[in-house]
Design a protein that fits this description.
It is a single chain. Strand 3 (53-60) and strand 4 (65-72) form a beta hairpin. The chain has helices at residues 24-37, 79-90, 123-132, 153-157, 166-186, 188-196; strands at residues 5-9, 43-47, 53-60, 65-72, 97-103, 111-115, 138-143. The protein is globular, with a radius of gyration of 16 Å. The mean pLDDT is 96. It is α/β, with parallel strands linked by helices and 198 residues long. Helix 1 (24-37) crosses helix 5, helix 2 (79-90) runs parallel beside helix 3 (123-132) and helix 5 packs antiparallel against helix 6. 36% of the residues lie in helices and 22% in strands. The longest helix is centred in the last third of the chain and has 21 residues, at 166-186.
Length: 198
């Protein structure tokens, strides 16, 4: 079976982490799957297998285009194990992989697309790059901002969003969903131009 590409949401498994900043990528994957599941001519089918991940086959336009959506369950620092194996087993090159992740260098509510470049100290991205053997993959960056005061970075990213922040989280997920859908239909360049002109 030939796939258009692989879309990966980064996060940590389990209810303990479900609403944390570091799970923004998981949240976007869920939002995307929920959208696709309600579209005529589109089917989302959960995949089983030995990989430590939640996987879905998505068939768009009555099977004309197919995607894999993945949520690695290895914990963030080992996410690349799943991405690397999916890439190899399904013949999906790095430049057709889109990784959704939380981004400290963007304020909450800000969403950006980029291809290749630095990893911003993000352990999930480091793992993905290591297992793919390249940084040349697309990323959708979901801003979470930086902690105020002396709070440790690890504590901050593993803390749940505050009640007052959820409206911005929802807005960001809506913007990111639109960006991913345009990435899938029109490609990275067109999706980036559309997103960054908002």
């Amino acid at each position: 079976m030939t796939y258009e590409g692989l879309i990966v949401g980064l996060g940590n498994p389990g209810t303990k982490y479900a609403r944390t900043r570091h799970n923004f990528g998981f949240m976007l994957a869920d939002h995307l799957l929920e959208h696709w599941a309600g579209q005529p001519g589109t089917a989302c089918t959960a995949r089983s297998g030995r990989l430590n991940a939640q996987l879905w086959d998505v068939s768009e336009d009555y099977g004309a285009r197919r995607w894999i959506v993945a949520k690695p369950l290895t914990f963030m620092n080992l996410s690349g194990q799943v991405v690397g194996e999916l890439s190899r087993k399904n013949g999906i090159p790095a430049d057709r992989i889109l990784v959704a992740h939380d981004e400290l260098d963007l304020s909450l509510g800000t969403v950006r697309l980029k291809f290749s470049g630095g990893l911003a100290g993000h352990n999930g991205l480091k793992s993905v790059a290591a297992h793919l053997g390249t940084r040349d993959f697309a990323r959708i960056r979901l801003g979470i901002g930086r902690p105020e005061g002396s709070e440790a970075m690890a504590d901050y990213v593993l803390r749940s969003f505050m009640p007052a922040e959820w409206e911005l989280v929802a807005q960001a997920l809506g913007i990111a969903l639109d960006a991913v859908l345009h990435y899938c239909s029109e490609g990275l360049t067109a999706a980036t131009s559309r997103l960054h002109s908002r």
